[in-house]
Write a structure and sequence with these properties.
There is one protein chain. The protein is α+β, with helices and mostly antiparallel strands. 34% of the residues lie in helices and 25% in strands. The strands form four sheets. Strands 1, 2, 3, 4, 5, 7, 8, 9, 10 and 11 form a ten-stranded mixed β-sheet that branches. A six-stranded antiparallel β-sheet has the order 14-16-15-18-13-17, with helices on both faces. A two-stranded antiparallel sheet has the order 6-20. A hairpin with a 2-residue loop joins strand 15 and strand 16. Helix 6 crosses helix 9 and helix 7 runs antiparallel to helix 8.
């Protein structure tokens, strides 16, 4: 059972939505973020990037971002570019790709108590320092400005049918196209619709964190601390709820989601020559190459490796012998059989020699890193992790390596703000 409730939402006015909304800050380089902050005073990036530091851009002060965040919401509410919609509602958010494929999620607020009940499952570990950063950001803004991305098994739920009925019947409050993707939002405030959605959402047996593990952990930490403080001070009666008892979330059915691979590049060969490196790789993988052209892995167990200006095909044939489901994933095989033993990358979360390249980037990105000699000596192209593998790992209580999946399209930031 999942408690996902309607909420009072701060959101853009219709004529401001395309100007204000942005892609998530982690899809931009540091320099691109700073440029957006400088050139678009209405950009939601002023909130999304509040209190962040940008290496290599020393003239941008994090405290300036906090100062802007603290005043920007009030200013935009005052001039009407933001709407303080007090009526508790759900929102339906549809994204449609140029090829016609679409995904529609329900935006609501998830009770942090669902974690204790085991209704919310994770597949990645988190770092306390990154959780602290999220908490500072929420405190600076006085609001949650980015939604947790959750997935559920659509075949087990009535939610998709209810959503389809509403979007077919009603007109959206927003409907715009940016970067080739249609973004449409419906407000669900009719009492009958709200109740039907609330009941159907509550019947979802399990929710899986697709993206936002640090937002999730940070919301739970800060919510528990705020509740404890309120109970100790006597300002909160037993059983009452605070706004911080909830985390703003978008909930999507699994069969509408597209998962891309998360590729890797490494800055050096760990002191090995290219020939020595290839020989060691050949001890663990069947290596074919150099190939006359590019490779696109066609199934699990197949990887592409770009080294010295050429592509190689790597095949790992012993995945079924690995002890756990996590160890059988391609991202784990690459880490455990190559990056760690051959290149000495023990911790992929912290090793600065390792970089991650999302699968929506052109393959030239992986090549150019090596061709230019900086920042990479070798790049790896993976087969996408299946979302059912993500579910299976989470069901087992396992943890996947960092950056195992990249979901696309990404929900735009700035469409929904939840004041805490």
């Amino acid at each position: 059972m999942s408690e996902i409730v309607p909420f009072s939402c701060i959101r853009p006015s219709c004529n401001e939505v395309a100007v204000q909304s942005t892609m998530p800050v982690d899809t931009f380089s540091d320099q691109e973020v700073v440029e957006e902050l400088r050139t678009n005073p209405r950009s939601f990036m002023h909130l999304d990037a509040a209190a962040m530091e940008f290496p290599g851009t020393a003239d941008w002060r994090p405290d300036a971002g906090v100062e802007a965040a603290q005043s920007l919401i009030a200013e935009m509410l005052s001039d009407g570019s933001l709407i303080d919609d007090q009526e508790p509602s759900y929102y339906l958010y549809m994204m449609v790709l140029p090829n016609g494929k679409s995904q529609t999620g329900v935006v609501g607020c998830l009770s942090i108590d669902e974690y204790e009940k085991g209704a919310v499952k994770k597949h990645e570990d988190t770092r306390t320092d990154k959780e602290d950063g999220v908490i500072r950001h929420v405190e600076a803004c006085g609001a949650q400005t980015a939604a947790l991305f959750l997935a559920y098994r659509g075949c087990e739920s009535r939610v998709p049918a209810i959503v389809e009925s509403i979007v077919t019947r009603d007109a959206p409050i927003y409907d715009f196209v940016l970067t080739g993707i249609r973004n449409a939002v419906w407000k669900v405030s009719d009492p009958d619709d709200v109740n039907e959605l609330k009941v159907a959402l509550a019947q979802i047996p399990e929710l899986f964190i697709a993206d936002g593990h640090h937002r999730s952990a940070a919301a739970r930490r800060s919510g528990i601390a705020a509740r404890r403080a309120a109970l100790e001070s006597g300002s909160l009666a037993a059983g009452e709820k605070l706004p911080s008892d909830y985390v703003m979330s978008i909930v999507f059915p699994d069969d509408q989601l597209t998962v891309f691979e998360y590729n890797r590049s490494v800055s050096d060969l760990g002191g090995l020559t290219p020939d020595e490196f290839l020989a060691k790789v050949g001890e663990e993988f069947t290596v074919t190459g150099p190939l006359p052209g590019r490779i696109k892995p066609e199934r699990r167990g197949i990887m592409g490796m770009y080294l010295g200006g050429s592509w190689y095909r790597l095949e790992y044939t012993r995945a079924e012998l690995e002890e756990s489901l996590v160890d059988r994933l391609d991202v784990s095989i690459l880490q455990n059989r190559l990056l760690d033993p051959i290149l000495g990358i023990k911790d992929p979360r912290t090793d600065k020699r390792l970089d991650f390249v999302r699968g929506t980037r052109p393959i030239e990105d992986l090549e150019n890193r090596v061709i230019n000699g900086e920042p990479a000596a070798v790049s790896f192209l993976l087969y996408p992790t299946d979302i059912q593998d993500l579910f299976a790992v989470a069901d087992e209580g396992g943890l996947m390596p960092p950056k195992s999946t990249w979901f696309s399209p990404k929900a735009r930031c700035g469409l929904f703000i939840y004041r805490v």
